[in-house]
Amino acid sequence: MKTIFKIILILMLVQFWQCSYAQKSIKVQKGKEKPEWVNNPYAFYSERQYFVGVGNGDTRDAAEKNAIGQIAKIFKTDIQVDETLIESVFESFKKNKGTIRSESTIKNQTRLQSNVELKNVKIEQVYFSEKEGLYYVLAILDRAETAALLEQDFNENDKLLKKYFDVSQTATNKLHRLSNINKALALAQVNKLINEQYKVLTGGQALTSAVDENELLNAAKKIKEQIIVQVKGTGEANDEIAAYFREIISRFGFSMGDQQPDLVVNFNLEMNKTNLNRPGIVAYNWHLKIDVFDQNNNITLNTVNLAKRSAAISEDEVRARIMRTIKNELENAFYKKLMDYFNSF
Questions:
Q1: Please, what's the b/e burial string for 47-58 (b: 16 or more CB within 10 A of its CB; e: otherwise)?
Q2: Which of 178, 183, 225, 264 is the 20 to 30 A CA-CA neighbour of 218?
Q3: Phi-psi category of 118—alpha, beta or left, where left has phi over 0 and alpha has psi -120 to 50?
């Protein structure tokens, strides 16, 4: 699912604990008078060479996080990434024990909320105000040095992206082609994030990929449209559940059809009315089972086996509640399981 993240863009590789060892080696200044760097840090660190953050807090750790957060704000932006795809591809790399640096890149790039990790940030000064009972911390980020590290990450990702793209164009198995183009797409999105960081650090300069973004997107669209999915249902609410599947299939970019399908989705919903001995309450025990048969690789994927009880004040309401639960299951767990399967090759 494409989601807009208000993210702080300079994630990757260096964990907070890796910074902490160096941070604790900085001697704490004390006194009643604040050092000049508290209010005027760029008098000591050139703005052309560094990004600087000054933070304070009741504890040293809180002040450090505040200072790092001030630098992180410089990289804050709105950007669209396919979080599910990136996480799924990373999990595939992890399970296959890949030895690529971009595994860490992908992993950390998907931590888009509170656990921000900053690359190449250093704690330079720590001061404790005895008068206020507050710690003050000055953090710096060397712009040129960090840009060089990001360029290295970008180039390593790009080599791998090109490799997966080339395989996606030559593989004969449709799902193998899909798996490789998905990996290329995920790496391209990670590199898009890296490029945003790089532009901030270099005043607008950009890094160039070996595969043009439009070429990659058009190739992915073509591969996905060639995959045909057939949906077959039995039991209750066939038409409504089939409509949910059409939405999911459209998210993947696949085609629907009954002639020589690559994937056959079989689903069955059983609903049995039950008496809860509660006046005015209608209840059903229900069971949804979904299997996906991959005809290219002769594999049956058991994706959903959901048994639940739902109750409401009327027949219409309880059935609507069941359908909402099923739709949510398809949009989340089912979609994720299929995505992971497609990226497993």
A1: eeebbbbbbbbe
A2: 264
A3: beta
Neighbours of 300 (CB within 10 A): 11
User: Which residues constitute the domain of residue 240?
Assistant: 227-342
Q: What domain count does the chain have? A: 2
Specify the pLDDT at position 116.
38
The span from the CA of 133 to the CA of 25, in Å, is 21
> Does residue 117 sit in the same domain as residue 234?
no
Residue the block writes with tokens 């008496």: 275
**What are 6's strand-pairing partners?**
78
**Contacts of residue 272, Cβ cutoff 8 Å, sequence gap at least 6:** 284, 285, 286
Domain membership flag for residue 66: yes
Taking only the tens place, the pLDDT of each residue in 220-252 is 999 999 999 999 999 999 999 999 999 999 999
Q: Which two tokens stand for residue 219?
A: 């190739």
Q: Rounded distance, CA 36 to CA 54, Å?
A: 12
Closest by CA to 123, choosing from 60, 183, 182, is: 60
* Helix locations, the chain, DSSP H: 16-24, 60-72, 83-95, 102-109, 143-170, 174-202, 213-225, 238-252, 315-329, 335-342
| Mean pLDDT, range 50-62, rounded to an integer | 96
Residue type, 102: S
Q: Which residue has the tokens 């494409």?
A: 2
Contact indicator for 59, 135 with CB cutoff of 8 Å: yes
Contacts of 283 (CB under 8 A, 6+ apart): 273, 274, 275, 276, 309, 310, 311, 318
| Residue 127 contacts residue 181 (beta carbons within 8 Å) | no
Q: In what order do the strands lie in the sheet with 299-312?
A: 255-256, 228-235, 263-274, 282-294, 299-312
Residues 6+ apart with CB under 8 A from 47: none
235, 330: one domain: yes
Integer Cα distance of 290 and 246 in angstroms:
14
CA distance 166 to 211: 10
DSSP class per residue in 137-155: EEEEEEHHHHHHHHHHHHH
